[in-house]
Write a structure and sequence with these properties.
Length: 438
């Protein structure tokens, strides 16, 4: 492989000041609760009103949303809900009897409360409300709390409508670290989230990272990434416009092209700056392309697969011949977009797959947000007296081989209880019975 365009070597060190700031804020909010969160909301957003969105204000915000926007949100919601329902049906409960007298099973149980963070800074992330809340709803979560940063007296009306439609039980007009803390600590609602999901800026991401363990999270999200695999059968304009569209996310959002065509790569390199210059966000897109954009030339498609899997991009588009070949061999990506008709915008907004996806190489070991993130797979077992003849014997012997005498005696007790006259050909402890009344 060689580079037609290579990103400069920019060291992406962890900003210790962000970590320290977020740690201090979380500690302050945990001890000061609602009053501390409100102070931060006033400092960062100038917010002085109620945090919990009332039914009356919710209805008023919904009424502000134009009909066409409402219809589009409803369409996107229907697609995301349909895909989430298919995911839910793929995870089933079962029970087996592997040996006589032994029942083993699996239950699928939703968490009790989900916290869904919806960004509202540079852009009004309407689709993020749908992606997180609708997915939690389909998973069967009994209570969903959503939050978003307010501006000019409220959260964005279209975000409020998307939250309402998707099934948010409580909506909080609060964002940033204080919003994440409100979800995790149960502020303003009295309901602590078991899982907190949703994208956000570096401070939001750090808050989720620090709270992980106390709550579950979806992904540790960094800047949005997009890659395109293309060969000489593709229109360079299609490739270039899709790269530019994703660089719009922010000045540190990487966009990559992996190609077997030098001519295509050279044309795309020439077109991207021209397309970027036409956008209102030209400065952002040009910075992302300059500092993080790459075009990688490979000798053959097998090498492209190797390169792409090494980058493990959040979004991966394939615009090349023989799409089934690529789908069968690519392994590391957050979500895959096959063919020139499929752009990342479809997945980001309305096609149905979730757009909350792993970044920074995490696609090597993790997928994106799904109904499974809001559900627990719980196992159970029931072993009758007769089955203990085998299972307690094996459990006892393995425990002693490990040096765990207490574990062994739990099995020994059952062997002595269920088979009092048996002479065992291995060590079975005689355990003195104690009367708890004495």
């Amino acid at each position: 492989m060689e580079f037609i365009k290579q990103a400069p070597a920019i060291e992406k060190a962890v900003d210790q000041s962000i970590r320290e700031t977020v740690e201090a804020m979380l500690q302050t909010i945990e001890s000061g609760r609602e009053s501390a969160a409100l102070e931060f909301a006033q400092d960062f957003d100038g917010w002085k009103g109620d945090v919990v969105l009332s039914d009356e204000k919710r209805a008023a915000l919904v009424a502000q949303v134009p009909n066409q926007v409402r219809e589009d949100i409803e369409f996107a919601y229907a697609q995301v809900k349909r895909f989430a329902e298919a995911q839910r049906s793929s995870l089933t409960e079962f029970e087996i009897e592997p040996e006589p007298g032994v029942r083993l099973g699996q239950r699928v149980v939703p968490v009790q409360c989900a916290g869904c963070y919806v960004p509202g800074g540079r852009y009004a992330h309407i689709a993020s409300a749908i992606m997180s809340i609708a997915t939690a709803q389909v998973a069967g979560v009994p209570h969903i709390v959503a939050c978003s940063p307010p501006h000019a007296g409220s959260i964005h009306p279209a975000i409020a409508y998307a939250m309402d439609l998707a099934g948010a039980d409580s909506i909080l007009e609060i964002g940033g670290v204080q919003g994440i803390a409100a979800l995790a600590y149960g502020l303003f609602t009295g309901r602590e989230a078991d899982v907190v999901v949703g994208p956000g800026n570096a401070y939001v991401a750090e808050a989720k990272r620090l709270l992980f363990g106390r709550v579950g999270i979806d992904v540790l999200a960094g800047p949005t990434e997009s890659a395109i695999i293309a060969d000489d059968s593709v229109d360079p304009m299609t490739v270039a416009i899709d790269l530019v569209s994703q660089a719009e996310h922010g000045p540190s959002s990487p966009v990559w092209l992996f190609t077997t065509s030098e001519d295509l790569g050279e044309q795309v390199a020439a077109i991207v700056p021209k397309l970027a210059a036409d956008l209102p966000s030209a400065e952002v897109v040009l910075a992302a392309w300059r500092d993080f954009g790459e075009i990688v030339l490979c000798l053959e498609r097998e090498e492209v697969v190797t390169v792409s899997d090494r980058y493990a991009p959040e979004h991966l588009q394939v615009m090349a011949r023989d799409l089934d070949w690529w789908k069968g061999r690519l392994r590391n990506y957050g979500s895959l977009f096959l063919g020139e008709g499929s752009t990342v915008t479809h997945g980001d907004k309305c096609s149905g797959t979730n757009h909350i996806l792993p970044t920074a190489g995490a696609a090597r070991y993790s997928g994106g947000l799904s109904v499974h993130k809001f559900m627990k797979v719980l196992t159970y077992q029931e072993i009758d007296a007769q089955a203990n003849e085998r299972f307690s014997a094996v459990g006892s012997r393995i425990s002693r081989a490990e040096g765990m005498e207490g574990h062994a005696r739990a099995c020994d007790w059952r062997l002595k209880t269920y088979f009092p006259d048996r002479d065992w050909p291995f060590e079975v402890a005689d355990i003195k019975r104690y009367d708890g009344k004495q």
